[in-house]
Design goal:
292 residues, Nucleotidyltransferase, domain 5, 2 domains, 9 helices
């Protein structure tokens, strides 16, 4: 028996198959182009495992429709991603494979993966929030094995943050809100601010301090609103050295108001290697969907 996973990102799709122990047996990276081409390539790849595949977990960039009573359930809705607005994602998969399919956001998938791994690592975690900072910014919240959000999923990447005094000339890049969190700290802000990619910007550059200030505000808001056991930060922009800056800013902003324990254990990198949290989460969600 195999479980399937699709982590659908704005730059790439990561397809994988694995077993009930969440161990990956095979995987493939597919470039995100048009819906027809990208979803079609996913179907073609999974077809080789059709006889063994028992359930599929799909975690997608959004916004997406998660209400099962909606005629648009399984759709990517009003995303700014070119070509992808109002795309039926689950429908073609269900039609071709006719399997149980768990459907959620990319960050929810990652949050669930970290929740499962925390249990496997014997960590006492009943709630966590997972932030991804990459092509976009989002966060998924898991409390006692359940996601937060009924009417829709959270869109934490679009919260407002207080502007850094050294960053007032940058208007932000979000097409909806300008200088929301995503508009100020996502990967594409590097070329927008500096004309070069984030990989070319040394950690000594002041822009990292500015971005840490914004991320720390998001961490503070999440702490005071939800009081989770821990906050996990993943995505291509995040590194341990960047997270050290975030922790310092977070401690300044929190100012000892509530107890979060050791900050190094509270604001952490993912347990899953190579930003693989969503694949683990998708396997677990697929298994859960199959057993319902």
């Amino acid at each position: 028996m195999l479980l399937g996973s699709i982590e659908a990102g704005g730059t790439k799709f990561v397809c994988a198959v694995g077993n009930e122990d969440y161990r990956i047996k095979d995987s493939k990276i597919i470039k995100t182009t048009t819906p027809e081409e990208t979803i079609g390539q996913c179907i073609d790849w999974f077809d080789q495992y059709r006889d063994q595949l028992k359930a599929l977990g799909v975690a997608s960039f959004g916004p997406i429709e998660i209400r099962q009573n909606s005629p648009k359930y399984g759709f990517i809705t009003n995303t700014p991603k070119k070509h992808w607005a109002n795309t039926d994602f689950v429908g073609p998969l269900k039609k071709y494979f006719n399997l149980p399919i768990a459907w959620t956001t990319d960050v929810n998938g990652s949050a669930y993966g970290e929740y499962v791994l925390a249990t496997l690592f014997n960590q006492q975690v009943s709630s966590l929030i997972y932030y991804t900072i990459g092509t976009g910014v989002g966060a998924g919240e898991v409390v006692d094995g359940h996601f937060v959000g009924e009417l829709g999923h959270p869109e934490v990447g679009h919260i407002r943050v207080k502007r850094h005094p050294d960053d007032l000339d940058f208007s932000g890049i979000c097409p909806y809100h300008g200088d929301c969190l995503e508009g100020l700290v996502s990967g594409p802000t590097f070329p927008a601010r500096l004309g070069i990619s984030g990989r070319q910007v040394p950690l000594t550059d002041h822009v990292w301090d500015i971005m840490a200030y914004y991320v720390a505000q998001a961490a503070l808001d999440s702490t005071l609103m939800f009081r989770p056991d821990k906050l996990v930060f993943g995505g291509g922009v995040v590194s341990e050295n960047f997270l050290k800056k975030v922790r310092r800013e977070f401690q300044k902003l929190l100012n000892g108001y509530v107890d979060v324990g050791e900050v190094d254990d509270y604001l952490t990198m993912p347990l899953a290697k190579n930003n693989g949290s969503a694949t683990i989460g998708n396997f677990a969600l697929a298994l859960k969907e199959m057993n319902q």
